[in-house]
Amino acid sequence: MKGLEDAFTILERNRVNISTVSEWAQLMEYPSSAYFSRRIRTRYRKPPSKLIQKAKLDLIASLFIKHPNEIYFFIAIESGFANSQSLSKFVKRATGKTLTEFKQGVRNRSEKSE
Asked: What is the pTM of this model?
């Protein structure tokens, strides 16, 4: 069992492959995803599912910045989704925005930080 201080490093390195708390817990070598979830919630005051969601959104945003002219299917595959429809549904559930709106927001934030 790895220490919680390694949790974000493992999530960051595997964010393409981690979609569930169970997958994250397994990579952390926890015997139970429920136990892992309780420990994460206690330590970081957020549910692990929200932390996974944020890591995925950060990955998608970075891909939009690196590859601004790529089709959505490319972004979907690179971020661990089966297709652009799955990616679109994830972004809509997580942000309330369409994929196009999310991409535009990423572009706007990127331009402001330059």
From this structure: 0.91
